[in-house]
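Re: the request from the purification team.
They wanted to know what the chain is likely to look like in 3D before they choose a buffer screen. I agreed to run a prediction and write the result into the notebook, where they can find it.
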Amino acid sequence: MTIPNYISMLRLMLVPVFVISLLDYADMGTELSWWTAVAAFLVAAVSDGVDGYIARRFRQRSELGAFLDPLADKILLVSGLVVLSFSSEHLPQLPIWMIGMVFGRDLFLLLGFFAITHWCGKMKIQPHVISKCATVLQMIVVAWGVLGRKDQFGLENDWLFWWCLVATFCTGATFFVYFPAGMKQLKAVPASGPSEDQSRRLVRLDLEIDPSTRMNRQTPRASETEPL
């Protein structure tokens, strides 16, 4: 068990603290709950960079860490988006079109992951820069919504709307990146083509439908009809 793995597990344990505190603040407006949610969010964000640095600097990368690190980030991010999607007197409400795009993209990637790992054994799709930008923008949206609260830092312009718009655009753009990459892997699998039984049925059906074949079958050869 490496140190980055322990840090990733710490981030996972901070998620319930963040969600419960933020829900309490959204409902009751308790300042202590808000500060607790902010502290949990900041510790999780800082620890995300720390465990990555330790893993690279001291060569402590592991398969478990490659699974836990993005999992902790995704759960924290999705939890914040879900809480901010509710109407509240103390927190801003994120637009429904952004929530739908984020969850639709994640569901699409999840189904693609299961399909590729089932038929290909291992997914060989590398993270794209657009996907990383989408994750960063989503994190900015959550941080802006939590830290800015309802008054949005007292700013006149609705900056949160523009953050949401750019984040939604980048999130939707990842469909055009991962879908062709996933289809390329699936097409290379023999199971994506017709099976032997289906191929035989198609050949048999073609022979039955082809009129020239049927005539050749029905017309006897001259050597067979001539008497000896």
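For the purification team: The chain has a mean pLDDT of 85.
Please add any questions underneath this entry.
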